[in-house]
Amino acid sequence: MSLLCFTRGPFLIHTVARYARGRCTVHTWRPVQTLQEGTVETFRLLAFGPLLPAKIHGRTGAEFPAIKKWFKEPGLSFNSSYLGQFGDHMIPLEMTDGETTFERAEAPFSIFLKWAERARTETPQQRLYIAQASLDRLPKPMQDDLPIPELVTKTGKGDVYDTSIWLGVAPTYTPLHRDPNPNMYLQLAGRKVIRLLEPDTGQAVFDGFHLASGSKASSKFRGDEMMIGQEKGFLEAQIWSDATREDGKESVGFEAILYAGESMFIPQGWWHSVRSIGTGCTGSVSLTIPEDDYMLI
Fold first, then answer.
1. Are 71 and 78 in contact (CB under 8 A)?
2. Residue 296 pLDDT > 80
3. Contact indicator for 187, 261 with CB cutoff of 8 Å
4. Which of 178, 212, 216, 246 could connect to 16 by a Cys-Cys bridge, CB 3.0–4.6 Å?
């Protein structure tokens, strides 16, 4: 495995590449437990209480009107006949070329919808993504299309600390990071694969880059370095290269593929990275659960 394209200078290239090969690469991915029933009792017992990741099959997402109203055959394209009425509403957008530039800006929703339609048949150099946008930034009718599912309201106190939305066109990518609170990640359209690391394993991967490069960063407060540059390249290679370790030791991670209508519980502190699969539009929503909710279990 080589990280030459992500680093600068002979010494840094050698050090980071050696560290990546010998110490950090996670190459064994086990399937996340799947809760076929998806009942509140099962979820509380097997995931929420013990703070273990779990894929919930086809329950929580089915409660969202957004799945049918926002998308044409979820995963194909956005339903402009419905969403177009909100075209003048200002939304937060991420703009990137995937390598060297990354910006955030406010723009009319219509700008994103027009770009998404063009991106279905072309390969635009600049990519747009509505990423981690607070639900209260959306028009009220769109907020109403995303009611809090029963699995969240009837587990713990039923509180939701924050709600975020992701809308884009494949390929989409969220770098390796961890959240300070547990959250429920629900897939509205398209497919995504999520790879997760236990807190200590993920921290070791994160620290690996900064130890080798001599840089410093907080794993709690992440900025644009997540999206472009050396850190992004290093962490992406660690999680998605599927390379093996030269020292023969195994590091274990967990993986799940989410389809429209499915959801994933991600416990507090678990590191995770997300990629879309296939083509077409993608949509996801994340419900952040207050830390003290699971302490009641």
1. yes
2. no
3. yes
4. 212
